[in-house]
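Q: How would the structure tokens look for this protein?
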Amino acid sequence: MKILSVASEIFPLIKTGGLADVVGAMPSAVHPHGFAVTTLIPAYGAILEKLGKGTILHQYDDLFGISARLMRHKVGELDIIALHAPFLYERDGGPYVDTLGNDWRDNAVRFAALSKAASDIAGGICKSYLPDIVHAHDWQAALSCVYMKFGNERAQKTPSVLTIHNIAFQGKFSGEMFGILQLPSEVYRMDGVEYYGDISFLKGGIAKAHAITTVSPTYSREILQSEFGMGMEGIIQAREAQTHGILNGIDDDIWNPETDDLIEKNYHSKSLIDRKFNKRKIEAIFNLKRAANPIFCVISRLTWQKGMDVFMEALPDIINSGSRVAVLGAGEAYIEDRLKNLAREFSGKLGIYIGYDEKLSHLLQAGADGILIPSRFEPCGLTQLYGLKYGCVPIVARTGGLADTIIDANEAAMEANVATGFQFNKVTYHEILRAVNRAIPLYHDKRKWAQIQRNGMKADFSWKKSGEKYAEIYKSLVK
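A: Here is the predicted structure in token form.
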């Protein structure tokens, strides 16, 4: 059966975060269950060379006033339909922001076009490809479910799934933009895209999708509450019966310390001693002085959601408690500036790399002793799963997917030999520092630390279980 996955990014073509990893891994996850996934993405200028030559499926003379075409491409094992619209997508900058970091002013049109194309495909516009289900990801694709609801008979009958990867990103635009969406006026109301006088792409998708998924079971419950629902808790409560929490998986072919060619030295759970070669490389890159104390890493967007404002305030005491720290990430300017100043103050003990580097993220997981994730909310989180796989012990806030995947190293869990990391309840200065101070003594007990590492490395967070659950939802919709 054919699944049309609709997303704004997919690994390895274009990536700004975990969304791309999930969208890239899903085709192989559901394939064993009888589902063939084709992914619809924008043909950004930055990925045209990677896409290579393709086959034209449909030519638009007027898609929101511009010419565009749908083309099918094969990229490795991925089956891609790319929306080629040079006026919308072939420009300098990122998928969502310009070279200065500002949102593209026409993002509403850019992603409405993607969603409209998905609906058209569901409606049979491409004679050689007709999907049985459309699966939209996040706000950028959420309008697919709305356009299908008001499309032709074939589109209306095609089931739709919406996955919420992060409800904080809602695709909100001025209500004055509604006219350009080419939707009937009845959509602009409380049970549609209307949101306090503005429009929200995500809200429209939540209202109209046949099934809704979130990326962890705990997160599916959290977003029913005002603390985590980001203003969407009311409509999520109304669709609670159609909402399912499915934990993300990780791609074992890409994230595997035994075969990873992006790290200095490969290893497995019985050769943890070899992680020291990766640790030495981290020390060299981040200018950390060699010492007997642990290296804790941070691989994150440097934002409020990720708790980075609290983390940087606790950082001096984390270092003074007997740790070295390596930070990889980019985000809010004041956090970046504060971290740079701290790196100068704690030279040799704190290293900062502003930006994102895929190779460096693999190396940090393979050589750092632990990974700090103090997120205020975390729909699923992938970095803690990578940490488990690589023996980089996670120290995490007890929220969302972090709560679902990490077993705290309390006395009972250590005695039962099931602990995989450290959890703390609130994202506060004292809670973060307390968790780190629980971890450091165990780090110096090499037998117990190796026990925690091996427990994490043997945990199964592959896509196998998640793929089965997505397949169950697809089957229920087709019935």
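The longest strand covers residues 66-75.

The CA atoms of residues 442 and 448 lie 6 Å apart.

Upvote if useful.
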